[in-house]
Write a structure and sequence with these properties.
homodimer, mainly alpha, Arc Repressor Mutant, subunit A, Four Helix Bundle (Hemerythrin (Met), subunit A), 2 domains, 3-stranded antiparallel β-sheet, 10 helices, 3 strands, globular, DNA-binding
Chain lengths: 224, 224
Amino acid sequence: MNIERGQGGSAAHRLGQELLKAIIALELPPGMRLSEQEIAERYGVSRQPVREALIALSRQRFVEVVPQRGTIVVKISVRELMEARFLREAIESAVIRRACESFSPTSRGRIDDSLDAQRRAAAKGDHSAFRRFDELFHVTLAEGADCPMAWTIVGDLKAHMDRACQLTLQGPSVMQALVAQHEQIIAAVDARDPEAAEAAMRNHLTEILRALPEAEQRHPELFA
Amino acid sequence: MNIERGQGGSAAHRLGQELLKAIIALELPPGMRLSEQEIAERYGVSRQPVREALIALSRQRFVEVVPQRGTIVVKISVRELMEARFLREAIESAVIRRACESFSPTSRGRIDDSLDAQRRAAAKGDHSAFRRFDELFHVTLAEGADCPMAWTIVGDLKAHMDRACQLTLQGPSVMQALVAQHEQIIAAVDARDPEAAEAAMRNHLTEILRALPEAEQRHPELFA
DNA sequence: GAGTTAATACTACCATACAACAACATACTA
DNA sequence: TAGTATGTTGTTGTATGGTAGTATTAACTC
């Protein structure tokens, strides 16, 4: 399976995206041992771009490189996920308050687009698409609040949370509930009500990991 | 100037630390054009570890690597620094509130140690040492509040702010003022007063960049 | 002389080869 | 048999050569 050449940046970058997607989708399960050589052959490139992609992933704490030993996909840690939620709450609640003060009109339009797309994905039960438009919602919030850098941080935290959420097999009903929470958040922004907006955001982020302890009991081998 | 071999991890990692230090100290000024080849010769290693170090630095947005063109030290952006301050405020104010609920006793001891060291560095006017112990103060706060991940984020943001602060030539009096702010923060934590602690933290972070506009006027070529 | 084109020099990027090191299996010894 | 020494294998880390692409510069045309 050769990776496409001549599009979307360097091979190392594309490979990093591919691996990240696979890790979040749990196709590369937590604890799995990776080998630069093996990945290189699998994707039809040399070891060097693989190595660079793994370095980037290790900075995001999705893999751990042990010198002269090997590279493994990091296991899911409830402890770290709770901390990630805490930090997301701190950042995104601040961002949403800022959004209540001023929000870019063009971003506001994109929010509606993403909500529509979320509803369609939820109805179809398409997890991959839902995740994509969920991400679009949060990144657009950050941009509209004139805080694009927030997404560079929240994106990483969200990716870890999304990976864990893959274990909870969320059906359409759960996804529709998430969309409703998104609607609640943006409604509070429209009403310029920072208290309500922050409360809605904190509630949203709290709900997401609610099913995590159950998932840990079902798949203990994937947790640290 | 060969880089030391056989200590502190891989050559790429050590080189990354060296380059980061040089960038923050403005020895590699914003806008400077870097070359893998040149750095490799300068530090007596091959181009590969240099490349890997630059990739890590580009993820921290300290350098920007333009494909097939070159690599440059990113210029200072007031816009981004203000955003970094906003995000640090969001994170560290949440952390300090958490610290008021529970704080590790052993971390509390290390806080005092770092404060002592800060006072000594401030008295001597040693910027490099002060920065090191200032960093120790904030990382210990995060650890003590059971939020070590917060530092992995705040550390990056702080590094950017520290680079800009190199332009403001802070004398001993400024450093002593910063120490006083630190003391105020930890005093509020000791008193278990989250409101006061958050207020002290926000004040601290606001003060840091106060002299930035003046610095921009003095060194416009270093800014984006 | 202004604009255009070709040659040149530089860059990051990728592939390959080699070195350093750790873990494991195996043979050997007391 | 228990313990030790040693060779083998597999891993990441480093060095080097070659490629594709871009900017610059020089030569050339009008």
